[in-house]
Amino acid sequence: MENSKIKEKLLSSSKDSRLEKFGKTLTFLCIAIIVFVVGLILVFVAQKGLSTFFVDGVNPFRFLFGTHWEPGAIGPDGKPAVGALPMFTGSLIVTVLSALVATPFAIGAGIYITEISPKYGAKILQPVIELLVGIPSVVYGFIGLTVVVPLIRNTFGGTGLGLLAGVFVLFVMILPTVTSMTVDALKAIPPHYREASLGLGATRWQTIWRVLLRAAAPGILTAVIFGMARAFGEALAIQMVVGNAVTMPQDLVSPASTLTSILTSGIPNATPGIQLNALWSLGLLLLLMSLLFNIAMRAIAKKGSLK
């Protein structure tokens, strides 16, 4: 009798086990809600964006590689003129150039904060970088409009609006993010990497260049791609300085456009039909590029963890 009571007590669920089951169930529900909401967003944007092709009869290749953007007009083939190549090219140019400019500064700042002056960097530089992350994009855009655009106008002529102004604005915007992630990647390197390199007689610079940067390379690449994802999806700041001219970019100092600038400027005045559907198609293209950036980040992070 006594043994059966002990067995029953051991098999019965305790308060801690019930709390653990409740926590697992609650966590699963939260994750399921997030996945459901993300799925709804993807389906909604895809449904709206694909209407341009299935409802209005626009050729997808004409949309992706066409250079004439005027949804209200009819092209020579009798189809709406909705070529997205100028905006996609502008987005790609400002994203790549801003990342190329920001990466050396981010790596240099990360090395200084983690290796050269950790105390000074942790007390002053890192809080300043974190503060820059929280500045609203409209502030960056306003500074670009009042400082960067006049500087480009006085140096190169023209209006000052264009991709070069967008590159400078996005460079400043993504620099704090890329720097913070680079610092985290350098801090995640095990201490024995440094100790082993210095113990073999390497100088501090040789240790940084040949050991630490190579070990942190996956994390730094992830930071750069994350910065590119933010630059590609930035809307308000880039709209204020790029000029919003729907033409193929000829140079960096002429007015141009990006996917986000056309979206933010066109949606308020778009009428239902091909005009609104074409803007949704731009949004779908922007969403697909964001997913591509996320896939690249996950692939790089996974490759780095396997090493």
UniProtKB/TrEMBL annotation:
Domain called ABC transmembrane type-1: residue spans: 88-297
Topology relative to the membrane: Multi-pass membrane protein
Pfam families named in the record: BPD_transp_1
TM stretches of this protein: 25-46, 92-116, 128-152, 158-178, 211-232, 278-297
Superkingdom classification of source: Bacteria
UniProt entry tagged with the keyword Transmembrane helix: yes
Keywords: Cell membrane, Membrane, Peptide transport, Phosphate transport, Protein transport, Transmembrane, Transmembrane helix, Transport
Compartments (UniProt record): Cell membrane
InterPro entries (alphabetical): MetI-like, MetI-like_sf, Phosphate_PstC, Phosphate_Transport_Permease
Function: Part of the binding-protein-dependent transport system for phosphate; probably responsible for the translocation of the substrate across the membrane.
Protein name (record): Phosphate transport system permease protein
Lineage of origin: Bacteria, Bacillati, Bacillota, Bacilli, Lactobacillales
